[in-house]
Design a protein that fits this description.
single chain, 78 residues, mainly beta, four-stranded antiparallel sheet, 1 helix, extended
Length: 78
């Protein structure tokens, strides 16, 4: 990667080595996707896992879109 800038490289990439995203896989609207939680009930779409090309044309599922979701805890004791 070539990056031309007057800003020093240590300023541009500050914190990049400590960034650890917390991705989750969910299904919403029948579409499996990977999300990055932002707050308790909001997340950012990272990518879709769908094989249907029509799913990629839906604006509400575009990567970077903020969605609302409610995490469901599964009982593993049963």
């Amino acid at each position: 990667m070539i990056h031309y800038s007057v800003v020093p490289m240590d300023v541009i990439f500050e914190g990049a080595d400590t960034y650890e995203p917390k991705f989750m896989d969910i299904e919403q609207g029948g579409i499996k996707m990977q999300i990055e939680p932002i707050s308790g009930f909001q997340a950012r779409i990272v990518r879709l896992y769908s094989c249907n090309p029509q799913d990629y044309l839906k604006e509400q599922y575009a990567p970077g879109t903020i969605i609302s979701f409610s995490p469901i805890m599964e009982n593993s004791l049963t």
